[in-house]
Amino acid sequence: MDSDARQAGDEAAAAPGEPAAPLATLDADRSDPEYRSWLKEAVRRVQADANRSADTHLLKFPLPEEWGIDLYLKDESTHPTGSLKHRLARSLFLYGLCNGWVRPGRPVIEASSGSTAVSEAYFAKLIGVPFVAVMPRTTSPEKIRLIEFHGGRCHFVDDPRTMYEESAALAARTGGHYMDQFTYAERATDWRGNNNIAESVYQQLRRERYPEPAWVVATAGTGGTSATIARYVHYMQYDTRICVPDPENSCFFDGWTRDDPDATSDRGSRIEGIGRPRMEPSFLPGAIDRMMKVPDAASVAAVRALDTAIGRKAGGSTGTGLWSALRIVAEMLAAGERGSVVTLFCDPGDRYLDKYYSDGWLAEQGLDIGPYARELDAFLTTGVWPGA
């Protein structure tokens, strides 16, 4: 659906999608017993989703045993909505509900390039409130289909940099709540534990030969995941270091290296879900140890190499992280170090068959993955990164 902001909100309110067992639509004072009953039931439903969800798998990327280095991918694609953003959406809904921001019968609005919106549409339907995703027109058709499948509505913008203002305006016009993942991602998740992604990784590594990873590699869209992992590592007094890879057309790397909170990019990222045109409030530069700038063609080469290695297609953000993780493995190998490295399998590649797995799309974008594919092949064959 492509419409003006008011129309998007009105249509969303009229057709929110039916929850499993409809909750009452109320517009009541916060002290009203009916509102409190609605709130308790909404929180219960969101928490019950977590109880029904088994922990996600920790996949092992095949490396020669004699290297003495293990590489893992935390497979977040197995969540009910198919991505890492399921954790974030659950946390954001609990945060918004418990703060009294998400109200019965009123739409939830989000600025999102796709996966967060898919997951938030799922939770909105779960508690019976309308949902509208404000997103770039270039968002993959599969993500749009999934948002609509979960009862959400899509409101498109031509310039990704306008998503924030458009979302806030839409919320104001409809009386809804702008979820604002880019501000609240780092604070909605309990980084001290409570089965967050970091605690899960360390629990799953307990019986591995290197239970405390040397590095965790986490790409950044909001920055919430890297903030959660870094805070947990510091809180638990681990020696693990955190690396955040950044794609082209994103300002995070420049802002981090220059210590510039006002850094910007004049265009949107081609790697959906990560990279931003501004330094987001949830991105915490001081919590992480290292950043890498990764060419988009390298990210695509990496996801295709992953498919060859383990028979699984992943989205481009997984490729950005995997490329950086393999570069770190190469550095450790060259230095004679042993240990483990963890990165994220963010979402499935079937959402991007018309992009990262399409040679036609690569040609349209002017991306040549050949040199990067050869680098990866040479490293995985010889243990030496070309040119290193």
General description of the model:
The protein is an alpha/beta fold and 388 residues long. The protein folds into two domains: 7-50 and 86-185, Rossmann fold, CATH 3.40.50; 55-83 and 193-382, Rossmann fold (3-Layer(aba) Sandwich). It is built from 14 helices and ten strands. It has helices at 5-14, 33-52, 85-98, 115-127, 141-149, 163-174, 181-188, 197-204, 224-235, 252-258, 296-310, 316-334, 359-365, 370-382, and strands spanning 58-61, 69-75, 108-111, 131-136, 153-157, 177-178, 215-217, 241-246, 290-293, 339-345. The strands form two sheets. It has a six-stranded mixed β-sheet with strand order 1-2-10-7-8-9, sandwiched between helices. Strands 5-4-3-6 form a four-stranded parallel β-sheet, sandwiched between helices. α9 (224-235) links the parallel β7 (215-217) and β8 (241-246). α3 packs across α4 (115-127). The chain is globular and about 65 Å long. It catalyses: L-cysteine + H2O = hydrogen sulfide + pyruvate + NH4(+) + H(+). Belongs to the cysteine synthase/cystathionine beta-synthase family. Cds1 subfamily. It comes from Streptomyces yaizuensis. This is L-cysteine desulfhydrase Cds1. Its EC number is 4.4.1.1.
CATH fold naming of the largest domain: Rossmann fold
Shape: globular
Q: Mind telling me the C-alpha Rg?
A: 21 Å
Unreliable runs: 1-22
Helix content: 40-55%
Instruction: Tell me the structural class.
Output: alpha/beta
End-to-end distance, in Å?
49 Å
Summarize this structure as a short list of keywords or feature phrases:
6-stranded mixed beta sheet; 2 domains; alpha/beta; 12% strand; 388 residues; cytoplasm; TrpB-like_PALP; disordered N terminus; lyase
